[in-house]
Amino acid sequence: MSDYLSKAAAFAQNAAKLSKKVSEGIVENAREFGLEATSSGHYFDTSEEKMRDIKRQLDSRHDREKMDGLKRLIANVASQNLEIRKLVYIYLLRYAEQEPDLALLSINTFQKDLTDQNQLIRAMALRVMSGIRVPVISPIVLLAIKKCVTDLSAYVRKIAAHAIPKCYSLDPTQKDALVDIITTLLKDNSSFTIGSVIMAFNEVCPHRFDLIHPHFRKLCRMLIDADEWGQIAIMGLLLRYARTQFLNPNPNGPRASKKKKSKAFYSDDENSDKTDDSLENSFILDPDHELLLRSCLPLLQSRNSAVVLSVAKIFYHLAPIEEAYKLSKPLVRLLHSHREIQYVVLANIATMATQRPYLFEPHLQQFFVRSTDSVFIRNLKLEIMTLIATENNITILLRELQEYVKSPNKEFATSAIQAIGRCAIGMPDMAESCLNGLMKLLWSKNDAVVAESVVVIKRLLQLRPQDNADLIIQLTKALDQITVPMARASIFWLVGQYAQNLEKIAPDVLRNSAKRFINEDDIVKLQIINLGAKLYSLNPTNQVLNLLFQYVLNLARYDLNYDIRDRARLLRGLILINEQKEITSENEEIENAQSSDSVKSSVLKENLKQILLCEKEAPSEESPSAGRDRFTIGSMALVLNHSIPGYEPLPDWPTEKPDVSARNNLDETYSRSQAVKGFGSDSFGGYAPPSIYDKPLITNKRKEVYDLDHFYDSENSSDDNIHETSENEDEEDEEDEDEEISEEEDDDENESSEEEEESSEEETSEEETSEEEEGDDDDEQELLLEETRGKGKVREAPKSR
Question: pTM for this one?
Answer without folding.
Answer: 0.69
